[in-house]
Amino acid sequence: MHGDSLNLIFNYYKNDMKAIIIWLFFISLMYSSSSFAQEIPNHSFEDWVIGAPVGWFGFGISQSSDAIHGNFSARIDVLDDGTVPLLIAGDVVPGINVSERYGTFKGNYKLNPNGNDFLKVDVIMGFSGEVVGIGSAQFQGTQDFWTSFTIPITYSSELTPNDALIFFSISNEEGSAAPGSDALIDLVSFDEITDVEGVDANSESDLNLRNFPNPFDLLTTISFDMKTYSRVSLEIYNLTGKKVYTLLKNEMINKGHHEFHFDSMDLSSGLYFYTLTTDNYTVTCKMNCIK
Fold first, then answer.
1. What is the four-CA torsion angle of 110, 111, 112, 117, rounded to 10 degrees?
2. What's the predicted TM-score (pTM) here?
3. Which of 40, 48, 66, 197 is deepest in the core (most CB within 10 A)?
4. Domain 40-193 is of which CATH architecture?
5. 78-107 burial string, b = 16+ CB within 10 Å, else e?
């Protein structure tokens, strides 16, 4: 009689138990995906202060109640003058602290582009100012439903990064954007840990690429060391990936120490990247212009 009672109870709750198991499985997936997101501030954009998501900044940003997780997501809109919007992880100075060699960056988006605009997602893993890993993707076409993305992060150094720059923008191949384009971003996270197998960083580190002062107001000096005679390009890019200045373009450079002065008079305040390309290597570093 006792066994029959248990069977009756089990059969009565069987359907609900299935639902509970599915719900617990979903919760476990959410927990595992968010475990890597702990180093990303406010990774589901639930917390907002004065119209901006806590732990993020930029321009063209607003809060949206259309969310894949929680109550809110982050919306970015191209401004009326065509200014490219930016959503950047970090406080006033871009960047967040990290402690792992994350292998992928994941998230969810919706996109309503005008013309040839696309959503650009970039992840820059850094170590004390030197870029050691990069992940980048462009998403085109209207997406009315929440769409997930996974972006691999490729490392060019054996160093474990201690900072990361994550930013979203809407742009086109010309580096501009069309008014009316907008996108929603929600539930972003790091995933996977990658090892250092197959990475040859010694020759790149020998270049000693750096700039001083950094941050800088108007002038900074970019220096590097060449071990051999090589063809060299040295170019500067803004956050949207647009080239803003060329210091060297496929020029033959002798071995030894070299310095080049960069005048930012025509540039606005913000974060920039300078890339040194030789016959064998490409190295990228960050510099912060504050006016």
1. 170
2. 0.72
3. 40
4. Sandwich (2.60)
5. beeeeebbbbbbbeeebbbebeebbbbbbb
